[in-house]
Amino acid sequence: MVSASRCAALLFIVLALTSLFLFTKSDTPNPSPKKQMGNVWYGVCGWAILACIALIGLHGLLQNFDKALYDRIGGCKPVFWLEAGAVISFGVAWLVKGESFEFLRD
User: Fold this and answer.
1) Could you write out the DSSP letters of every residue in 35-102?
2) How many CB atoms lie within 10 A of CB 91?
3) pTM over 0.85
């Protein structure tokens, strides 16, 4: 049986790959400066999602190595905040792709 945490990790990986590879596609060989700026945003957002996933994994591993630190950090709900950061990062990439920001519109 597949656990909920594995499904969540898979979802965030798909969102990161969407930001990094699908959103950066272009029909033209020489994209406009605004498209290039959008690609920078997609890259930052995609890597931020991957960083959040990695930090969640490290938090899970911490339980095996330093239980006292794991318990101390656990009160801050790091998994919640890292998942929220990943969702917000994808939201920013989505808004950039939808040309919601004036400075990135073509």
Assistant:
1) HHHHHHHHHHHHHHHHHHHHHHHHHHHHHHH-HHHHHHHHTT-HHHHHHHHHHHHHHHHHHHHTT-SG
2) 12
3) yes
Q: Nearest Cα to 56, choosing from 95, 91, 16, 106?
A: 16
Q: Are 105 and 34 in contact (CB under 8 A)?
A: yes
Per-residue pLDDT band at 93 (split at 50, 70, 90) = very high
- What 3-state DSSP class applies to 23? coil
Longest dimension (CA), the chain: 54
What is the amino acid identity at position 39?
A: N
Helix (H) or strand (E) holding 10: helix 4-17
Cα angle 25-27-28, degrees, rounded to a multiple of 5:
110
- The residue assigned the tokens 């969540």 is 8
Asked if 53 and 6 touch (Cβ cutoff 8 Å), the reply is: no
